[in-house]
Amino acid sequence: MQRRHFLALTGAAIALPALPLRAATSPSDTIQTWYKLVLELVRHTATYSPPVAARAFGYLGLATYEALASGSGAHSFAGQINGMTALPVRPAGSYDEALILHAVMSEAVATFFGNTGPTGQRAMAAMRDKLGAKLHAGVAEDVAARSAAYGLAVAQHIEAYSKTDGGADVDNMGFPRDWPPPKGPEFWLPTSTIVQQQAPLLPAWGENRPFAMPVDAPCTAGTPPGYSEDPASEFYKQAMEVYDTSKTLTDEQKAIARFWSDDPMLSPTPPGHWISIALQIIHRDGTDALHAADALARVGMAENDAFIACWADKFHFNRIRPLTYIKRVIDKNWEALLITPPFPEYPSGHSTQSGAAAAVLTAVFGENFAFDDATHADDGIKPRHFADFNAAAAEAAMSRLYGGIHFRAANENGLRQGAEVGSFINALKTLA
Amino acid sequence: MKILTLGLALLPFAAHSETAPPAPLLPSFSEETTTAGVDQIFAGDWEYMVGGGVSTFDCNADARPDLIIAGGTNPAKLFVNNSAKGGDLSFAETASGLEQTAVLGAYAIDIDSDGIQDIVLLRQGENQLMRGLGDCKFQNANKGWGFDGGNAWSAAFAATWEKGQNWPTLAIGNYIDVTQDMFPWGSCTDNWLHRPDGDKFAPPIALKPSFCALSMLFSDWNRSGTPSLRIANDREYYKGGQEQLWHVNPGEEPRLYTDAEGWKRLRIWGMGIASYDLNFDGYPEYFVTSMADNKLQTLAEPTDTASKPGFKDVAFAKHAIAQRPYTGDDLNPSTGWHAQFEDVNNDGLADLFIAKGNVDAMPDFALRDPNNLLLQRADGTFVEAGDRAGVAAMGLSRGAALADFNADGLVDLVVVNRREPVQIWRNTTQTGNHWLSLSLSQTAPNRDAIGAWVEVKTGDHIQRREITIGGGQAGGSLGARNFGLGDLTEAEVRVIWPDGTEGAWNMLNADAAYSLQKP
Fold it and tell me: Which residues does UniProt assign to the signal peptide (chain A) (predicted)?
């Protein structure tokens, strides 16, 4: 059903969603307006590194979907995903779906972004009050009260569920205060001059409870090429590929690297980029709220699980970054185009979560679903066109090689790892 | 004070024997907040989360730095310095005409070159140029000077005298569009460049793009003779933004330095700028405060003729770090605001003070964030001494100023805190180190010689200091600058004046204040 619904819209022009408040009266508009704020909060909340952002997207999508599913006969994720108990049932009576969603998001966004700064707090309060007043207008008081109470109950259920996944508390922006580096030439070393980043980001994140991926059998990217400084080795060849590529970068390759750079604090992060892609399509196509919530929940949960799988591998293999290896072995003066992230190299987080997102979005929207991506238009970065989601994911993966921050194996194996993660999300039943 | 006219005759070079650099002398500060007579609170809600500036200047020609302190929703206040030489700090709040509300910051500058300092008030709303009338009185001169104060959230300021102009060029940095409550991100409003038009100001030029400036500084980073405008921008609010360096060449439209010229993109929570030639190569280093990190930038490839504006960060290498509290029980990341280089122990090496404090109850950042006092060591690295020196205050600090309030040759300290009283410390360091206090003057225009460089030979190196108006967090110091001499009882001094004239080296006896006048 979903596939037929979306395939009919393939090929239409996509504009950056303006999402004005005055338009936020339908349930779908309500979702989109809140998500627009969420993308800003991810960018502007210091703890929101990509794995943390993915986790929030997972729970926000889940709460949004469950709030609507209970009124539509759609399947609940409860009983399908790890550890989530049955959601509160709707008491008898009439409901306003937009007010339910507003209550869900008012509560859940305030919870997941409770540590954002004063500007974010001010923005959340303004959204809660102004959008709430607009949605409330013309709705019977008993319906409004019932809708708000139910939305709050759903959000609180999801919040309670989230507390036990291992990722609820992030200290020191995710960086351990002490980090004794393991000894060996193959292991990750800090690449930043920022003091905080002398330890790697979120070393225990791989132990978090995933949504759909088996808890005891996380997807793996497999073993990377063995470390070697022998010019004949695969490791050296992949390093030389990064180095040689950096010396011959075309403007297009630079543009690709920067388009997918998705730096924390300067963008909605990689998972936010894929949420943005979904939102642009939802806005363009006028997708109804339930389908929108389903898509956002699936993408968010897929990204969360992808980062768990990826981070488990990252800290199992603990691999050196190209910047360190190339300076050590090939050219001590070499610099990468992009800022090297402060954690181990293998596999590529962006690749893994892009592979997962592409797998899920392909299942939701269909094969050969062309789209334009204007996620970074506000930052002056031109939109890019993609023939389908897998093409976008492949470009995202390759961008890390162009940017000089990953070897080929991390990108290619990360994509495969992500696709496998996505298959677990795709197996979940929702609207059908 | 001794007044010297610096002639062009060369004086003999004073060769000082090379000795092993001493370990940093631990300074000591005595807090005199409750007795010094400085009673001010920078108050206000979200619209005043930045700002809180304090400036030092002499409003009554007594050679003692007076204070103008922003109050946010409280009125700004002027405090006249009555401190006795070497005595306890003593100030008196004085009705001045500066008692405006909605003030985030203030800078002193003699705009009309009448020998009386004027004040620029940065406000949430219309900025105001307050003409000095003498005896610490001021009146609004916006209309008379053709100054368009605008209506913005102004948080940064810098000034320079462009060649051929009798009046200064003023740069004002603006922050967020205050009307945007749900989506303020990306709403940075234009910065303004107020250039002179004869004896008044022309309509301001918008410095597009603008990226939510929190500190600005005209500085001659490449010693070309023409300062450029460095802007620290808050990445929290811009989109597509970065730190900026503008060409501001006389008679030309301002334009950004580009990647092609060697400018390297940097995106931080830029909050405050301090500058000093730390490595004695003739070029200033720049310390830029941020959150969970700070930058100490030095030219990546300095050359004698055409340096590229590419800077490398040496904060980590130099231990000029203040990324998290170094004392107390809160070890979350820090939030840095005002920064200033001063030699607090007179050992001949500039030290670094950083005012720190949470934006407003952000749980991811330290809520009890001690201010830093980083002492420079002889090898150019820094070591933290804020707690041992007695200045590790935990308030939500914003602006600050270091100046010698009681004329004893030791630089004292005042700090503005958000929603809490201003704090002030007297430098009580017991030291036999010597010092010079140097102030510059020249005939109008630009009587305070903004843009000059003061050079002091100490040991085997030359201390160099650019005379600027701007930087810091919404405030700065205008007037005498202190130079530590270590154990030297005299030192050679010269001035390179704003027009490029190189003064002669003059041997000055230590432990005295000098007014250096351009011949």
Answer: 1-23
Residue A19's pLDDT band, with cuts at 50, 70 and 90, is very low
- What is the least distance, in Å, from the CA of A203 to any CA of chain B? 18
Give the model confidence (pLDDT) of A86-126 as tens digits. 999 999 999 999 999 999 999 999 999 999 999 999 999 99
B321 to A44: CB separation less than 8 angstroms, yes or no: no
Residue A381: inside a domain = yes
- Overall average pLDDT of the A297-320 stretch: 98
* C-beta atoms of B316 and A45 within 8 A: no
Per residue in A278-302, pLDDT tens? 999 999 999 999 999 999 999 999 9
Question: Is B279's Cβ below 8 Å from some Cβ in A?
Answer: no
Query: Quick one: A252 and A182 in the same domain?
Result: yes
**B267: contact with A, CB 8 A cutoff:** yes
Please indicate if any CB of chain A lies within 8 Å of the CB of B179. no
How many beta-carbon pairs under 8 angstroms link A with B? 88
A341 & A214 share domain: yes
Distance from C-alpha of A396 to C-alpha of A270, rounded to nearest angstrom? 9
A261 in the same domain as A385: yes
When CB atoms are compared, the residue of B240, B313, B361 closest to A193 is: B313
Residues A137 and A182 in one domain: no
Give residue B404's identity as a one-letter amino acid code.
D
Q: Which of the 8 DSSP states describes residue B490?
A: E
Same domain, A112 and A192: no
Number of folded domains in chain A?
Answer: 2
B359 vs A: CB within 8 A = yes
Please report whether residue A7 resides in a domain. no
Same structural domain for residues A129 and A200? no
Are B402 and B344 within 8 A, CB to CB?
yes
Phi first, then psi: give them for residue B462, nearest 5 degrees: -115, 120
Residue B103 φ/ψ, nearest 5 degrees = -95, 125
Q: Which helix (H) or strand (E) holds A306?
A: helix A289-317
Residue pair B477/B403 in contact by the 8 Å Cβ criterion:
yes
Q: Determine, yes or no, domain membership for A10.
A: no
Phi, psi of A62 (to 5 degrees): -60, -45
- Of the candidates B183, B239, B323, which has its C-beta nearest A195's C-beta? B323
Is pTM beyond 0.90 here?
yes
Q: Which residue of A has its CA nearest to B49?
A: A118
- Domain of residue A288, CATH code: 1.10.606.20
pLDDT digits (tens, 9 = 90+) for A33-69: 999 999 999 999 999 999 999 999 999 999 999 999 9
User: Residue A148 is part of a domain; what is its CATH number?
Assistant: 1.20.144.10
Residues A156 and A80 in one domain: yes
Among A162, A197, A216, residue at a domain's last position = A162
Query: Residue A193 and residue B315: Cβ atoms within 8 Å?
Result: yes
* pLDDT tens-digit series, residues B113-124: 999 999 999 999
Q: For residue A148, tell me if it sits in a domain.
A: yes
Residue where one domain finishes, among candidates A162, A197, A220:
A162
SS3 B174: strand
Task: Tally DSSP H helices, then E strands, for chain B.
Answer: 1, 37
Q: Do A117 and B321 touch (CB under 8 A)?
A: no
**Same domain as A323, residue A216:** yes
pLDDT higher than threshold 70 for residue B475: yes
Q: Which residue has the higher pLDDT, A176 or B13?
A: A176
Beta bridge partners of B412: B403
